[in-house]
Amino acid sequence: MYMIDRGVAIIRPRQPFVDWINGLPDADMKVNLEDVRSDCLVVLISPFVSEADAMEEIAELYEDIFKTELTDWCPEQKWWPAKRDLETFRQWFDIEVHALVADPFDEEIRKEPY
Description:
With about 110 residues, the chain is α+β, with helices and mostly antiparallel strands.
């Protein structure tokens, strides 16, 4: 097993995000908070010492993270919320950070643009 030089941030949707999903014009089936929190986005971040440092980096990355989450549920940007600032991001998502990341595989990690 190998320790890698990254931390992780787990992005867990909160109820306002669920409300937005359920309010989409093409929302055929309603989802609940448990549904959207069962498989969350995990983002690699720089190594960090304090949670405050990690949150500072998330503040720098939040726009891309927000867009990724919105795109996963609705590729139609015209239906995205108009207000997508850091305050809204924090209202819509819980952020859990961890400093240790282990990779048990010898193969290189394959990267694909999203």
